[in-house]
Amino acid sequence: MTYSSSPNITPDSQANTAVLLGLLSVFAFSLTLPFSKIAVQVLTGLEVGLLRSLIGGVMAMIILLIKYCALPNRQQIIRLYLGSLGIIYGFPIFSSLAMKTVPVSHGAIVLAILPLSTAMFGVRLSKKVMPLAFWIWSIVGALLVIGYVVMTKDLQSLVLGDIYLALAVILAGFGYAQSGQLSQSMPGWQVICWMLVLNFPIILGLSLALVDFSHINMMKASHIGALLFLASVSGLFGFFSWNKALAMGGIATISQLQLLQTFLTYGVAVLFMGEQWSWLSLIICLLVVATVYQTQKTARQVS
Description:
With 303 residues, this protein is mostly helical. It is built from 15 helices and no strands. Helix 1 packs antiparallel against helix 12 and helix 4 packs across helix 9 (188-198). The two termini are 20 Å apart.
């Protein structure tokens, strides 16, 4: 069964709506690394990853109870658990661990590779054949961002933080692709809510066993605010629009919008976290926007 939340809109209108929803989500997600950096000032990366999912799980339970949502079927539950490997565990934990060892500007490299990771898993799941030009432009966009990081000397020798980032990218791409597929058969907001609720007992057990609650007593308003943002926006409400965008616009297509996330994150780092700004960043950003436009154009040819 296929779920459709917008049965009367035209293909072009649906594509445009999907892009707008995707951009809204990308903006929200672009704040994840900066807020993670703030949270790990007093918490460990593992604690941030677990606590954001724990708090998000409580909110998701309340939403599902208010909406009187029916339980997912067996096949959906299996996919929800599979997607959780990236969305509930992989990206939240590994990206937070990375923020303990690398700066936000360095961590933004994850945002260059994530669209390719999501698109590859998405194409694998949907069995859709994308034109060669789509993959060429996707790779060009990713290489532009990687080249930018190399040229600005933010990419140094391989460190533990880079390994965490690589794991976060792979698992997040897998989780996003699973979410996009699930959003074809159930509302996107229910996908993330059920992921959080189904994993809540596991997250609760891990939190009780692994979180040093003395760290929580050390948290100031800024740390609490950062954790609440990660739980509510990065880990829950941001996925409402993101999952719907993936379902409406296609996983491979919408995932390319994440290329812009790197520079949104960089902008936040420059404006609010004391990072250096340069003309090179602006030029590369414009080039990346151009590659995103080209991937959108080529992907729509097979939509």
